[in-house]
Amino acid sequence: MTTLELHEKYVLGTYGRFPVSFTHGSGTELWDESGKRYLDFGSGIAVCSLGHAPPVMQQALAEQSANLIHCSNLYQIRAQAELAQWISDVAMERAGKTFFSNSGAEANDGLIKLARKRSFDRHGPNTEKVNIVTCQKSFHGRTLGGIAATGQEKVKIGFDPLLPGFIHVPFNDCDALRAAVDESTAAILLEPVQGEGGIHVATPEFLQTVDQLRNEYDCLILFDEVQCGFGRTGDWCAWRSILRDSEFAVEPDGVSWAKGMGGGFPIGAFWVADEYASHLGPGTHGSTYGGSPLASTVALQVLQSIAADRLCSSVVGKETLIRKTLLDLSLPLITEVRGLGLLLGVAFDLEHAGGLYDPEATVPLSIQIVAECLNEGLLVVPAGPDVVRIIPPLNVSEALLEEGLTIMQKVLTRFCAS
Ligand SMILES: Cc1ncc(COP(=O)(O)O)c(C=O)c1O
What we know:
Blueprint: H1 3-10, E1 22-26, E2 29-32, E3 37-40, H2 43-46, H3 55-67, H4 78-92, E4 96-101, H5 104-123, E5 131-135, H6 144-149, E6 166-169, H7 174-180, E7 185-190, E8 193-194, E9 200-201, H8 204-217, E10 220-224, H9 238-242, E11 254-257, E12 268-273, H10 274-277, H11 293-308, H12 311-328, E13 334-340, E14 343-348, H13 365-375, E15 378-379, E16 381-382, E17 387-390, H14 398-414
Parallel strand pairs: 3-15, 5-6, 5-7, 7-10, 10-11
Antiparallel strand pairs: 1-2, 2-3, 4-12, 8-9, 11-12, 13-14, 14-17, 16-17
Helix pairs in contact: 3-11, 4-11, 12-14
The structure holds pyridoxal-5'-phosphate.
Residues 103-105, 108, 139-141, 191, 195-196, 224, 226-227, 258, 268 line the site of pyridoxal-5'-phosphate.
């Protein structure tokens, strides 16, 4: 059977998959079963921070797996504790404690539990301070907590009754946020840069409003940095990239990560500011695999490599190159290149779509463009019906960036109305 046939017969069809299967990769390059070469500007959806098969990960995996792959969280795990130390000292630059999970959705579930538990501990079992204000167009994962928090109807359909207590406001709408937050608010949860929802960056004003409301209503600020964190925007923390030129700073009470922190090895985490850490004591939360010796060792190696290779600062120059190249094309099809660092979205105007664009097709313009890029040997990722994401590895070279952008230019030209 072909890989496609095997998939169709044996794998649950929860994904619309492109008909290609990769056998190996190196850095930003990938090869499929037929030997065809691709450039990967998707990084497994913002996961492969260091590209494919990076030698430092291979070495960390080989060495650690020869010693100890797994050990229960019933015991001390040196690598887990060192990774947690790195997160507090280097990324957060604040005292706090970290819990390790296997994915982003689980990390967010942990943050939701933290917010509820803190209200319970402070106000007692009958407290009504349980609501979590989140944003429309957000994405927080596929667990029952994650889909309740997510501000997109499509992920919730068919799964009622949902976890109650989530209120969604339009992203970057300060008035709507003020109207939604009150004494019943346990936390405000948001992605500083929305990924799946189409690449939308929080405005400094929105973050400032979040900060003011925390002070007014004694709620927590929780940032979901699963997609935008750990270097992708040019800083360890995306909200710091947003506020880089601002006089104002915001410090969240809890942060979640996954994706890029493991460079492809499954790991997620959430960090809690020291003053709230005691709300999740023994028996309140757990994960069999979370923060295993292998996962922690590899993630620490990935993050230390991002630091050693100064990838955060290199991201800003690469962002400039991508923006300039795409905007210099002056294609009316492109309405905007938005986002931060190497988490960029190219937004399209359907009015100017033509050529290869099939308005009758079952898939939207973004997927049609992604499929054509794939034919031409470039992986990019859709983000909603009219946005394509460019999220290459943080260490992509300028030469490969230019090669990929040339493919994109060729493809986009084919989708322009003549
Ligand atoms: C912002 C954000 N949060 C949470 C998740 C869920 O992460 P995972 O798929 O690892 O559960 C994602 C995944 O795309 C995400 O982008």
